[in-house]
């Protein structure tokens, strides 16, 4: 660990040194060119620009001009982000909105800034032209990447939040934010720097009183080349700081949003919907499969609270499909399937579905009740040093155990366990069985497994599933 930290620090130092050396090289080249021309009027050097900057900084008007431009460019940028994200959400949700929005934003994206500014000056005057120009530049630059991020959200993770009945705020923070954020950060790296170019360009055309653009325009008219370079340096520095501050804020959103979602999820979880003896799952002559192709037919099942149903059969026989049909993620092909209304479910899926950047406690806490002793439950199956690191650093067997704890910690009526012992050694397998027995708390359980001993250990009814037929 210390070696890795040392290597990262050394790498950061090298990058800073390399960047500084590159900047110094171009400053020296600029100074050499200025000395060769030997005319401050034609090409002021870096020393001339530095002297002008030192002279400008103490002037109150210098800071007034910076504040004027910064306020408008920042406001235009923020408004562009807000509307772009809102439009992307609408376009993702409704196809009609996507069709209507795309041509308008494509046209804005393709129109030169100078043409837009001229029209804006006619409509709105010069004072706020930079804010509107920046807004129009940011809008398509953020909209299209955010829409792509929304379209690329992981459907398996969406199914996780849907099955556990997570509230919209938890889904937003723990599913949408990490899915969209990489696209937004990548777009922002370009948009934020371009916003200052567009804003100052608009001010140079409109020349609003009190703006940076006005001072640059005056320096050009008065042939004050050193002042022109000084103000350009100011714009570059502010744009650089603005870009890096916003990018840092965006990157800080994750995994902080996920940890916040875990607290919100924990506080929002309610008790299971039923505590009576009514049938939770009832199937009669049920046929299951995918896209109209029957994998298994003739299912007859009746499951009540406190009962465990163990599905056994070869790979591909339909065990996972049966569990997915009960959960509601795929529809039955024929027959009857009755589920208790408002029944809550929890699950271990066949594939791993954890939020990799969060630790084991937060992954479980997101779907557990506020009074659930999450850490103690996890400690029954995992070493304590595995509880506070991102789950991406855990082994496959440890990740599987986190999912098992999550399924049993969530307040549910029905627990669906699809191959929950995958990757577990014999001893851990026995401990996992004991964990299920200890924390079933009278709930119904559907378990898919290849090991016939699991049914005996859990006192389960066995359903042997085979292609095209089912036998009890």
Give structural attributes.
472 residues, alpha/beta, MetI-like fold, Rossmann fold, 2 domains, six-stranded mixed beta sheet, 17 helices, 9 strands, 61% helix, disordered C terminus
Notes on the protein architecture:
There is one protein chain. With 472 residues, this protein is of the alpha/beta class. The chain has 2 domains: 34-266, MetI-like fold; 281-471, P-loop containing nucleotide triphosphate hydrolases (Rossmann fold). The chain has 17 helices and 9 strands. The strands form 2 sheets. It has a 6-stranded mixed sheet, sandwiched between helices. A 3-stranded antiparallel sheet has the order 2-1-4, covered by helices on one side. α16 links the parallel β6 (414-418) and β7. α3 (60-93) packs antiparallel against α4 and α9 runs antiparallel to α10 (225-251). It starts with a helix and ends with a strand. The model is unreliable at 468-472 (pLDDT under 50).
